[in-house]
């Protein structure tokens, strides 16, 4: 089993900034998305997402990728047992309800 890299304080600070601004950094790769109809909600992708991005969240019975936090790296794709994660060239901004959820769940971690 590969060892998961621990995020530096600078990386976590950059993530906190993206959350505060609710914007996507100028990453070269588009974000990923989870196809809900194919997902088995195993949370493997959530655990695989690097901490400096922390782009994957449980939302009720769904697992979602927040495009503003997703760098487009393939970590979640490599771990998904059902191959339900795709490149999202046409992503849309995350709604306020989800941002409020993110802020509540990350408040203690920031």
Number of helices: 4
Uncertain stretches of 5 or more adjacent residues: none
Helix percentage range:
25-40%
Q: How widely separated are the two ends?
A: 28 Å
Give the strand content.
5-15%
Q: What general form does the structure show?
A: globular
The secondary-structure element order is HEHEEHEH
Radius of gyration using CA atoms only? 13 Å
> How many E strands?
4
Average pLDDT, all residues: 91
Structural class: alpha+beta
Q: What is the spatial order of strands in the main beta sheet?
A: 1-4
Tell me the major beta sheet: 2 strands, antiparallel
Question: What this model shows, in words?
Answer:
The structure is a single chain. This protein has 110 residues and is of the alpha+beta class. It contains four helices and four strands, in the order H-E-H-E-E-H-E-H. It has helices at 9-21, 44-48, 75-79, 96-106, and strands spanning 32-34, 56-59, 62-65, 85-87. Strands 1-4 form a two-stranded antiparallel sheet. Strand 2 and strand 3 (62-65) form a beta hairpin. The protein is globular. The N and C termini lie far apart (28 Å). The mean pLDDT is 91.
Note the main attributes of this structure.
110 residues, alpha+beta, 4 helices, two-stranded antiparallel sheet, single chain, globular
């Amino acid at each position: 089993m590969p060892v998961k890299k621990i995020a530096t304080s600078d990386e976590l600070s950059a993530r906190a900034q993206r959350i505060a601004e609710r914007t996507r950094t100028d990453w070269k790769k588009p974000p990923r998305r989870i196809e809900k109809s194919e997902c088995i909600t195993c949370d493997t992708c959530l655990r695989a997402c690097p901490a400096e991005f922390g782009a994957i969240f449980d939302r009720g019975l769904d697992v979602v990728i927040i495009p503003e936090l997703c760098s487009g790296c393939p970590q979640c794709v490599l771990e998904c047992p059902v191959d339900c994660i795709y490149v999202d060239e046409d992503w849309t901004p995350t709604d306020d309800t989800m941002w409020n959820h993110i802020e509540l769940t990350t408040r203690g971690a920031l």
